[in-house]
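lol so apparently i was supposed to do this last week
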Amino acid sequence: MDSLERAPRVGGASAKPLHLCPNCAAYVVAAIWSERVSDRCVRNIWCCEACGFEFETSAYIPVKPISN
Ligand SMILES: [Zn+2]
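anyway here it is w/ zinc ion bound
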């Protein structure tokens, strides 16, 4: 088993940014849909389990500096 990259951890101290529902301010931990918009942009669709509100965010992946 080598699936350590995304262990769900709710309620504990975590350095990961959590999204807050814009409607009811509950924590939303899992995206229901991820869409790759471009090489460096991913759009995530989130659904609040508490109230059912859906919203989306865009994540921009920074360009890695070429260390040479
Ligand atoms: Zn909500």
